[in-house]
């Protein structure tokens, strides 16, 4: 059978071919007119590390200690043991003498004085003797060590010629053996926190203490004695056997800097568990609790040299003892700066 051009078959075929050409044209035009949108590159935001927590001072190694003469090694090791286990030798049940409150030096100077930002001894050898406003004199290391015994350990001073003093001094000297004279390495001592714009709040501090500290230091702050009762597994934070009001940690800025990067148990500058604000409030609660007074009658002979957070008057500035203890401290600092 012969099909003519008017047959329905040809009309349908023409329609299909035309539709296909139109679709193909649109597709080709689409490729030209609407190009594919490129995927934006992924840019990693790399923040520089905080310089306060990089390249920190570290203590000499055991391998370095073993290079020293045997007699030096022995004295340094004894000094280290005295720092770590002070109460076993010099506490209320001490084997050498009974002259302190039962705390260990490393309760305040963590890891036997080697912890970065843990009130370590990294700068002591390099910076002493030095003038200190608190005594108004040039102090040597013997004076500095005995200040700790009389204030933080609420005890009596060591004889400067005793084996115990010689051991502690030898250990401190060894710890600072790599630090140039007059230099303070990064990470030495305590971290200086930025102040609050309000007074530190001891009520908020109580809440934090209950949540984060009480399990170790107990509800009444008395700590937990180790087996045998010679020293503390967890030291008292206030009360008869804690540091007295002349101790460095009784200044709020020092205690806040201490707890910020070292407490609760397990916290470090690399893995802190408190914010700045929490550290200030917690310090306020701890230092609002009762503790031994200590003799501070001869401290700060130059009143203008008193630090902004020394909690006892008289002062040369117009601010109250309450503000000097809890803050805010910026107005005090500003006044001091303006009246130099």
Automatic annotation (TrEMBL):
Region (Disordered): 311-340
Pfam families: Cytochrom_C (PF00034), SoxA-TsdA_cyt-c (PF21342)
Keywords: Heme, Iron, Membrane, Metal-binding, Transmembrane, Transmembrane helix
Residue ranges annotated for the Cytochrome c domain, each copy included: 200-290
Basic and acidic residues bias: start-end ranges: 331-340
Transmembrane stretches, start-end: 12-34
Domain of life: Bacteria
GO molecular function, one term: electron transfer activity
Gene source species: Fibrella aquatilis
Name assigned to this protein: C-type cytochrome
């Amino acid at each position: 059978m012969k099909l003519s051009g008017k047959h329905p078959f040809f009309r349908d075929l023409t329609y299909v071919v035309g539709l296909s050409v139109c679709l193909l044209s649109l597709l080709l035009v689409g490729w030209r007119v609407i190009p594919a949108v490129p995927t934006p590159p992924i840019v990693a935001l790399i923040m520089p590390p905080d310089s306060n927590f990089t390249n920190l001072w570290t203590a000499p190694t055991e391998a370095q200690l073993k290079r020293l003469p045997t007699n030096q090694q022995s004295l340094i090791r004894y000094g280290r043991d005295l720092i770590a286990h002070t109460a076993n030798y010099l506490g209320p049940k001490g084997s050498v003498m009974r002259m302190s409150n039962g705390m260990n030096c490393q309760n305040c100077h963590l890891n036997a004085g080697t912890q970065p930002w843990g009130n370590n001894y990294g700068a002591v050898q390099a910076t002493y003797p030095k003038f200190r406003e608190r005594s108004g004199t040039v102090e040597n290391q013997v004076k500095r060590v005995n200040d700790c015994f009389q204030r933080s350990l609420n005890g009596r001073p060591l004889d400067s010629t005793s084996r115990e003093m010689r051991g502690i001094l030898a250990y401190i000297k060894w710890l600072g053996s790599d630090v140039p004279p007059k230099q303070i390495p990064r990470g030495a001592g305590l971290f200086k926190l930025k102040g609050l714009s309000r007074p530190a709040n001891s009520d908020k501090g109580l809440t934090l203490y209950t949540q984060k500290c009480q399990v170790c230091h107990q509800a009444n702050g008395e700590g937990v004695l180790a087996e045998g009762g010679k020293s503390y597994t967890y030291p008292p934070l206030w009360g008869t056997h804690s540091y007295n009001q002349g101790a460095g940690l009784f200044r709020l800025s020092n205690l806040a800097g201490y707890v910020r990067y070292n407490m609760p148990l397990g916290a470090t500058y690399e893995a802190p568990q408190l914010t700045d604000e929490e550290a200030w409030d917690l310090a306020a609660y701890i230092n609002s609790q009762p503790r031994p007074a200590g003799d501070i009658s001869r401290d700060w002979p130059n009143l203008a040299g008193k630090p902004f957070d020394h909690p006892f008057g008289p002062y040369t500035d117009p601010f109250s003892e309450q503000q000097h203890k809890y803050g805010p401290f910026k107005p005090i600092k500003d006044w001091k700066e303006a009246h130099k």
